[in-house]
Amino acid sequence: MNHFKLLTRGKLIFVSASFCISLFAAVQFPNLGLIGESQAQTSKTAEKKAPQIRQKATISSNKSVGFKDPTAGKSSKSNSLNPELFKRKDANEFVGDTAGNLDYRVQRGCYRRSFSESNLPANLGIDNPQFSEFFKNQTSSFFDRMRGNCIPYALALGSRNRFDSLSIMNGQTQDGKTEIWTFTPSSAGGFLVQQDYLRDESKRYTEIELSLRDILYDPRKVGDKLPVELVWELNSLIKQIYPEDSNSLENTNSVVRLLVDFGDRDHWAQIWAAEILDPSNKEVFASAFWLERDDIPGGFFTGSGEAIERAFWTNPLSYRRISRGVGNVPVSRKKPTKIAANTNATTPVAVPQQRYRAHMGIDYAAPIGTPVFSVANGKVVHLGFNGAFGNLIILEHDGGYRTYYAHLSNYNVELDLGNEVRRGLEIGYVGSTGRSTGPHLHFELRKDGVYVDPYSPRMQLDLWSMRDNESGQLTREILLLGSPPKL
What we know:
Elements: E1 3-8, E2 11-16, H1 17-20, H2 44-49, E3 67-68, E4 105-112, H3 120-123, H4 129-138, H5 140-144, E5 150-157, E6 163-169, E7 179-185, E8 191-197, E9 205-211, H6 212-217, H7 219-222, H8 228-241, E10 255-261, E11 270-277, E12 284-291, E13 299-302, H9 309-312, E14 321-324, E15 327-330, E16 356-359, E17 362-365, E18 371-373, E19 378-385, E20 391-397, E21 401-408, E22 410-411, E23 420-421, E24 426-429, E25 440-447, E26 450-452, H10 471-481
Antiparallel strand pairs: 1-2, 3-23, 4-5, 5-6, 6-7, 7-8, 9-10, 10-11, 11-12, 12-13, 14-17, 15-16, 17-25, 18-24, 19-20, 19-23, 20-21, 21-25, 22-24, 25-26
């Protein structure tokens, strides 16, 4: 059995792996295979978080598995008028969650082997003598099993160059003899090391390659290989990580390498890794990796540690323009009363003051019938007409978040109250119902019932930032799922 080693007050304490952290699951790359040594003992939750990869395959399934119906075979109401869903709270009651690591970055590479391999942390710029000593004591046997002339690594640093996590691999070859060790600080003091040993096994995760140009401009071709809800997510993801200084990439033979779990009855289909690369030399231009979370919705982070989830939560449709944002908007003035004929003309007339009302949400102008997508996995808690909102869908997400989609012309006919929906599912269509002056989508994001302006640069939610206890997960996935780094 694998153990974690905890250094506290200069003493090593061995702790059962099942007690500390579920071992990362297996990965198999073309002609090679990887899986965590303790996979047979992991729970279903760990399986969902631990990607396994099989050899390249052509996938022809385009079936939408974007929602689950817990009320199948039972009658259900078409809407819900739960007053708590429409309770207005003062926005001052909520401030952005700044507990996340807003200054988070990852550096990745392959460090040339030398006689001072045990000094790797210091050579990578980690200024932490206690960790350097812990690393040296733990890795003597690891370096005995090195293969190749460099050490693949992924290092995460927080604010003020604080050490967050370090993952290392025993060579660039990924097969049954591959090991990945991940070092992280312990909340109890000292450090933890997670050791992943990998071997061949049947996998449900698939590696596929798609043309970058098709993803950007011809999603119909992509739909032949991915579930429909993943097409929207992939298009949004690639547009975010697409290098701004490489405007001609789509005119080349650049491809997007994906590691995908196509899902089953128990869990959603999910993209776990995406890389834009040159197929001839395997140069990676950009990459992103999915982090699953228990208490809040999961999210994508780039290979350099950049958080990109905010864009997903602010793009529920393809819109022409944002016609109105969060803030105060004018309401119609009362017409001035007529002046009586015998009134002195020189008497000043009181000009009615302009009145305003709060507009909480974002209005996206778009033609009637434009598809509207769920911005994250969630549950339908309202589906129906509601006064000024018109036709409204409310989705409830983990972590106390809800999203509102108002003024719809219609809904997805298969959608019903209580359905669990996946990000990217087409849930409704733009309209002009309720109190609306023209076709648009009124979109709101609320946290514990309080309005949140997702476009405010001052607003930082835990959805959009890397939390300190997640850095080890990201660096492991970068080495496990990403293309092998070059020297």
